[in-house]
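Quick one:
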Amino acid sequence: MTSGHWTPNQVKLAFHLYCQLPFGRLHQRTPEVVNLAKLIGRTPSAVAMKMCNLASLDPAIRESGRSGLGNASKLDQEIWEAFHSDWESLALECDQLRHELTPGDSNEDLSIPEVEESTEQDFTGETTSVVAERRVKQNFFRRAVLSGYKGRCCMSGLSEPRLLIASHIVPWSRDKKNRLNPSNGLCLSAIHDRAFDKGLLTLSDSYEVLLSEELKRSKEPFIVEVLQPLDGRKIDLPERFVPAKEFVARHRAECFVDSHG
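Output:
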């Protein structure tokens, strides 16, 4: 096993995994931690400690009282800031690093299954490499978002992974820089995701659900029973990567149907 200073690539891979594991699984016995330790020549305890140090940089973790180990290095801070300034490039870089360390390996060992997020995507004319890159990005975002919400819809509490979507707050097409930013994501059931995507509901700055007037007036039994009770109810916030209020405000202004008269 390697000793001494961590390299930038090792820290990148540790942060990449940190994003995709629930906070409660950042320990040396977690299979994904053990696997990464083998790939980078570190002990599982060292990898777990590094991820806890990275957690100490996460505002959501600090505000919850779980401060990690509090020994984040300058390099840890630099990697944290690098990811937040360019999620896409670093997600792809880390996936490539894993492939180089163990050809054929990526993130298949992670507990959150890969699920195609959209049924409306058209890959016609795309090269194989472009499609592969897109799926790497989507799967990273999905895992980061769902792990933060402990695999439950933040509005309904649904925990069936095949019915959960990592929903973008600011749509994928409108903000390239934040496409993979977990703070631009909500874990929603397929029906809640559709309503959010179509602007039939949104969030306040205090993370309360705001229903459109159309949904409020609806007599449709499903809407009355499932969606109308959500109005004014605060969503369940993630244990890390809390939705950025700037993204929530943009969704209200740009997507919410009542904002357009």
